[in-house]
Structures are given as C-alpha cells and as structure tokens.
Amino acid sequence: MDKLDLSRKMKRLTAWLDTQTQPDGLAGRRFHGVPFGDAYLTIDPEHQASYASANLNRVHLCGLEAGMSADGIRRLIDVFADHGVRRFFVWLSPGPDLDEARSLLDQAGFSRNQWTGYPTLCRQRHTPVHFKTDLDIRQVGPDDIAASRDALGETLWPNYATSAGKQGFFHYMAFDGSRRSRSPRSVCSKPSAI
User: Fold this and answer.
1) pLDDT digits over 17-63, tens only?
2) What sections of 22-129 are H helices per DSSP?
3) Among the listed residues 101, 105, 182, 103, the one whose alpha carbon sits nearest the alpha carbon of residue 138
4) Phi, psi at residue 191, to the nearest 5°?
5) Residue 59 parent element (H or E)
6) What is the pLDDT of residues 75-122, one digit of tens each?
7) Residue 181, CB half-sphere, CA atoms under 13 Å: how many?
8) Distances (CA, A) of 108 to 69, 77, 105
9) What residues are paired with 184 via a beta bridge?
10) Which of 84, 130, 156, 193 is deepest in the core (most CB within 10 A)?
11) Is the CB of residue 171 less than 8 Å from the CB of residue 189?
12) Which DSSP state fits 168?
C-alpha cells in the first residue's frame, strides 16, 4: 500500500471518528489549498492535555501537501491562539516533501516528540491470526471501561471511552488473569466499517 494513500485514509478516518466520538462543541475543520495545504484540525479549548493522545487541539498533515506554506503554519498557530488554546499538536504523517514539512514546523517553533510513535498497521489478510497468550482478552462495554478508568489513568484514550456502546464499534481489553484486580493491560478499538 502506498504510504501517502494510507496517510490520507488515516486523516479521513480521524475526521470521521471525530464525528462519531467527540463532543458536539468540538470544532473540526478541513482545509484544502493555500495556505494550509490539505489540513484537518480540531479545536477544544476546554481540554488542553499535556500529551498528544488526549489533547483534542490538533492538526493532521500528510507531508507538505499542495498549498502548505510557512505563512500557513503561522496562521494555524493564530487560529488556535484566537480560541485560547495554548498547547496543540501537529500529527505529521508520511507525504510529499516530508523533510520540508518538518523544517517548516521547526522554523515555526515546534519541537518533535521523539518518544511518541503510533504505529499504523494495515492487515490485508482476511483470515484471523491465532495466537496463544495468558491474558484474558474479551469484548468490553462502557461499564467495563468505566471500572478500569483508575487502573488505566491517563493512558485511557478518550475516543475509546466515548465510542463505547455506540453502534458499529467493538471494544476489546486484555486483562492480566494472574492479578487480583484484573487490571487491563492494553486497549484497542475498531469501527465495523470505514
């Protein structure tokens, strides 16, 4: 699969997921062309978390797409500042002139989070892969997620919790069966259709 095609699909998926899982007040905007390129951004001044996964103030870019410029980066900063947002994140995915896009962000004062790396996996086989584990992996609902909130702490992805129980979403958690509290060890979510 082409990296740029996958990046663009992931950006469209993010925008769609936001319509399904985010508060009604979340301002989602798409831009095409000068000066922002093909950017998708969300603004939520009420939730300015210190780490990227829980901060809904974000911009999604795929490299240096047509129309993105240094002026566009400065104007994006102004858009967030005008809404009272002090901290937002740029999710930069593979795309054309990726190094130039990084350079424009560096010049605008952004710094790269070296420790953040979210892998995107694309599975092309239709047959499920069988594996053996001592973990208890099961489908969960909103009550299970709420009961695990303390154990998960800040690692609980907001979209995971807000999409629980919605039609077309299936949530799974892996529990360590040997622990008395049966604390969840990992979470994942999958929409039924994209």
Assistant:
1) 888 777 666 778 888 888 888 899 999 898 888 888 778 899 999 88
2) 70-82, 98-107
3) 182
4) -70, 150
5) strand 58-62
6) 999 999 999 999 999 998 888 898 999 999 999 999 887 766 666 666
7) 9
8) 11, 9, 5
9) 175
10) 156
11) yes
12) T
